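ok here's RNA pseudouridylate synthase, seq below lol
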Amino acid sequence: MVYNIKMNGENGVFIIAENDEGRRIDRILRKFLAKTPLSRIYSAIRTGKIKINGRKCKPDYITVKGDKLEIRTAFFNEDNGKKCGFYEKIPVVADSEEKPAVILRTNDLLFINKKNGEIVHGEKSLCQAVLKHFPGTENSLAFTSGPLHRLDKNTSGIITFSQSLKGAQKFSRALKEDKIEKYYLGIIEGINIKKELKSIIDGKDCFTLAEPLAVLKSENIALVRFKLITGRKHQIRIQCSRLGTPLLNDIKYGSKQSFHGAKSYFLHAYKLKFKERLFDDVPDTITAALPEDFSLFLKKFGDLSFPLNFDS
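and the structure came out like this:
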């Protein structure tokens, strides 16, 4: 990440932008200078090596858009030239990182169609690819674009990343208040499944609605639409397994069938539906096209006439 820095004598000057407004200065600095010991940050604030608008400030100072944050350049290279964390907020991403498949990008949110087998966090992950190609606000000191909900490695489909602090806050609040509906398509082993899946996972209540869309009796498999009511880790996979109808090819959770050419189980997060409009430039419904291997496999079911964006 490269920041626009204006020099004022021995100070680097950073202008507080919208994504850093309304936050304590010490919390901004703790993220911006992530490799710097906290004691050094607080010492720099106390001794005036870090100032706001040319004056000393307290650690709990609440920033205002347009504030000038001044940091003594010598502060970054204290301790015999060792780095104190400057420019280390975002990890280096290799040039070979593939550009993610974008469904929709706005100033606040980024919707990506994740591939099966793609990890979200860590090295060579979707997070790193997003930081390289769609970093969000360039000049924010503390904000970093990141995923706003989970998606397992071998689950494909919609995953949402923040592009601004406002986007992250509004999306997360909507999730917490159950104003975002999540829909999945999956193929199960078996042709009978309950419409309401209720269970306890890791001590927490889990609830999923299931709707069979097509069955293939000769192969003993079914195409099912799932609507998540709660969102626990591996929720759909665990609930299907406990009912004796695991996701096809989901060996971890008890599938006994395997089909040649399938990379893993078939589970695709194909739709997000917003009960209330979050932003004017984000539609009420976001859909993600099926992966090629999933689409090819569906031909086993014959002519499926339903659209992927059918109403709930």
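fwiw The domain at 102-301 is CATH 3.30.2350.10 (Pseudouridine synthase). kinda neat tbh
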